[in-house]
Amino acid sequence: MPTPATPSTPEVLFAHSRDGLAIHDAFARLVADVTGDDVQVRTTKTQVAFRRRRGFAFVWPPWVGVRDHVDAPAVVSFSLGRELASPRVRQVAHPSSRVWVHHVEVRDPAELDDELAGWVREAYDAAG
């Protein structure tokens, strides 16, 4: 499914998926809970990025970035200074020598648990 050319809000980005928007909203609350107010949020045509000095966490519709089939309504990603070994992580990108971006498929907001919050907190700490 194509995404809108220039979404300005998460509601536009996830317009086709009520479940995806619910996951976005829950993830935004999780990020706020573990980071406080020191976060910038930026919506692009492909994702919602949570930033400190640099992006540390992201939520996006899966049809914009995963080449393999994804049946989840949203994917959350976070950047760590190490590669994480977890069965929850579907893909890991290694865009630079010190950054590993981990992608986790999310089918239900209840999957945004304490373990994921810990990874987001680690990503936040490393981004600032």
What key attributes describe this structure?
128 residues, single chain, alpha+beta, six-stranded antiparallel sheet, 3 helices
Task: Describe this entry's structure for a reader.
It is built from three helices and six strands, in the order H-H-E-E-E-E-E-E-H. The protein has helices spanning 10-13, 18-35, 114-126, and strands at 40-43, 48-51, 55-60, 74-80, 91-96, 99-106. The chain has a six-stranded antiparallel β-sheet. A hairpin with a 2-residue loop joins strand 5 and strand 6. Helix 2 crosses helix 3. It is globular and about 35 Å long. The mean pLDDT is 91.
Give unreliable regions as ranges.
none
> Can you count the beta strands?
6
Mean of the pLDDT scores? 91
Instruction: Walk across the major sheet and give the strand order.
Output: 1-2-3-4-6-5
Helix content: 25-40%
Distance between the termini: 35 Å
Strand content: 25-35%
What would you call the structural class?
alpha+beta
Q: How would you summarize what this structure contains?
A:
With 128 residues, the protein is of the alpha+beta class.
Task: Annotate the secondary structure layout.
Elements: H1 10-13, H2 18-35, E1 40-43, E2 48-51, E3 55-60, E4 74-80, E5 91-96, E6 99-106, H3 114-126
Antiparallel strand pairs: 1-2, 2-3, 3-4, 4-6, 5-6
Helix pairs in contact: 2-3
